[in-house]
Amino acid sequence: MPEQSPLVDTRNRPLRDLRISVTDKCNFRCRYCMPAEIFGPDFEFLPQHKLLSFEEIVRLTNIFASLGVQKIRITGGEPLMRRGLPVLIEMIKKVAGIHDIAMTTNGSLLVRHAQALKEAGLDRVTVSLDSLDNERFGTLNGRGYPVEAVLDGIRAAAEAGLGVKINMVVQRGVNDQDILPMAKYFREQGHTLRFIEFMDVGNSNGWKLDQVVPSSEIVRMIHQEMPLVPIEANYFGEVASRYRYEDGDQEIGLISSVTQAFCSTCTRARLSAEGKMYNCLFASAGEDLREPLRNGASDDEIRAQIQTIWSKRDERYSEERLDETPGLVKRPKVEMSHIGG
Fold first, then answer.
1. Using CA atoms, how far apart are residues 152 and 260, in angstroms rounded to an integer?
2. What does the pLDDT look like over 99-139, one tens digit per residue?
3. Torsion angle, CA of 8/10/11/14, rounded to 10 degrees?
4. Degrees, nearest 5: CA angle 234-317-221
5. Residue 341 or residue 220, greater confidence
6. Alpha-carbon dihedral of residues 286, 290, 292, 293, nearest 10 degrees?
7. Burial of 206 from C-beta contacts in 10 A (0-12 / 13-18 / 19+)
8. Nearest Cα residue to 283 out of 254, 304, 324, 312
9. How far is CA 57 from the centre of its chain?
10. Rounded Cα gap, residues 102 and 244, in angstroms
11. Helices then strands (H, E): number in the chain?
12. Averaged confidence pLDDT in the chain
C-alpha cells in the first residue's frame, strides 16, 4: 500500500490512539460511571452477538493502524470480564504499526490475569483506585470490594513486568481527603499516580461543577508536603500534566479536562464494545463500523468510512464547557461503560 498523508481532523489533530472497549460489563458500580440504582440486577447489557469478536477487533485495528494509529488501549466496562482477553492482546501485538498496548482496569481481577497478559504482549496497565480507606473505597466502588484486592492486583502487574500507573478520580467532599495519603503511598511504591478531575461523562453520575477539585489545588496541596517541579510532556497529545518530586525521579500526573481542557491536542478515537466509532469521550452518538464489517464491506471501504468520520471531526467538548456553552453539560452523552475512560 502506498504511503498516505497523515489523517487529520478539521482542527489538524492526527489520529494516533485508539481506545477499544471489549465489554460494557463491570463488577464495580462506581457512581461516576455505573451507579447501582441504574445499572442494577435488571439492567440489560449487550448480548454476546452484538459485541465485536476478537477477529473483528483485530481487523479494525489493522485498518486504524494503516491510517496512523500507533497506540491501543483496551478498556471496558471492566475489560478483564471479557473472556480470553490475553488471546486478543496477542492478536493485536502482531498488527503492523502498533507500538504500544495498554489497558485500563479496576485491578480487582489482575492477580489471576497479570502474568498471562504480559506474556501475550500487553505493555502497561492503568489501575483505577480512588481511595486507600477500605470503608470509603467499598462505598465508592458500590460493591464493597476491599482496597487490598486492588493493591494485590497492582503488585501482581508490577511483578509480571507490566508498567503500572494509578488513576484517582477526585470528588470534593467525597474522597478529596485521600489526595495526600494516595500521593505518599504510591510515591513509596514507585508508581505514577494521576489525579483526574471529576468529569460529566455519560448521563447518570449527577455531575456538578462544585464537586470538581481543580488540578491546581491538588498540586498546591501536595507541593506543601512534598515539593514538586513541573516537567515537559513526553509526546504531543499526552493527557496528563506531569510533575516530579523535587528530591527524586518519582512523578505524579494531573488530568484536567474540566479546568484546563486539552481538546486541541486530542489524538484519540474510541471504539465501543458494539463497534461504534466515537470521536470524543463526551460524544452523543457514534458511527457504526460493525454492520459494514458483517455485511461484506472491504477493508478499503471501511478505511474510507473511518477517514470520512475523522476528517469531519470538530469536537472540543471540554473547551466548550470551559466557555460555559448553554445547555452543553445536560446534552445526552454515551455512557463511559460503553467506551472506557
1. 33
2. 999 999 999 999 999 999 999 999 999 999 999 999 999 99
3. -10
4. 55
5. 220
6. 150
7. exposed
8. 312
9. 17
10. 23
11. 11, 12
12. 92
* Backbone φ and ψ of 328, nearest 5°: -65, -50
Rounded to the nearest 10 degrees, how much is the dihedral formed by the CA atoms of 292, 294, 298, 300? 40
**Residue owning grid cell 489501575:** 127
Whose grid coordinates read 498540586?
219
Tens digits of residue pLDDT in 289-334: 999 999 999 999 999 999 999 999 999 888 787 776 656 666 676 7
Rounded to two decimals, the pTM is 0.93
3-class secondary structure, 248 = coil
**Residues 99/104/105/106 CA torsion (nearest 10 deg):** 150
Sign of the Cα pseudo-torsion (129, 134, 136, 140, in order) = positive
The Cα 82–Cα 126 span in angstroms is: 17
* Phi, psi dihedrals of residue 332, rounded to the nearest 5°: -60, 140
Instruction: Evaluate whether 98 touches 123 at the Cβ level (below 8 Å).
Output: no
